[in-house]
Write a structure and sequence with these properties.
- The protein is elongated and about 70 Å long.
- With 179 residues, it is mainly α.
- It has a domain of 104 residues.
- It is 76% helix and 0% strand.
- InterPro entries: GPCR_opsins, GPCR_Rhodpsn, GPCR_Rhodpsn_7TM, Opsin_lateye, Retinal_BS.
- It is found in: Membrane.
- Belongs to the G-protein coupled receptor 1 family.
- This is G-protein coupled receptors family 1 profile domain-containing protein.
Length: 179
Amino acid sequence: MTACGTDYLTPGWTSRSYVLVYGIWVYFLPLLLIIYSYYFIMQAITAHEKNMREQAKKMNVASLRSSENQAQSVECKLAKIALMTISLWFMAWTPYLVINFASIFDMAKITPLGSIWGSVFAKANSIYNPVVYGISHPKYRAALIKTFPSLVCGGKDDLSDAQSSGTALSTVSEEKPVA
């Protein structure tokens, strides 16, 4: 069988060691790096928000933002994006790793179709991040809601947030030049 992937069908130690090293370098190391990076991104955002609140106190104002909810919203949105990105990465690569480990250690008999699905999930990971970041951007979400209103699955708050962020864009694009 010819495939673009690991050789988990050969029972030798070289194939087993390759799959083990591959699992560490392609699965566990990136997973730890992603979690580590998002942890420090979250710390930096939290520290920045704390500094903003302290600066607001020094200036004797309630907040430097238009509302206090917006400051918490930034942290919550970033946490949701980080959680979604990590979860999607985990769901994309875990089947591939499980298939490789199960095959190389004779834990299960994997069919060619099963191995293809593992590869498809893993390689589809490259499209997840743009989708997550695109949908989380208010103007993109507003355009998506305007184009495909049936895709709205959130409450009224999600719809109004996306529309309020995209109002300037929609009003400018709807104006017609006077001849």
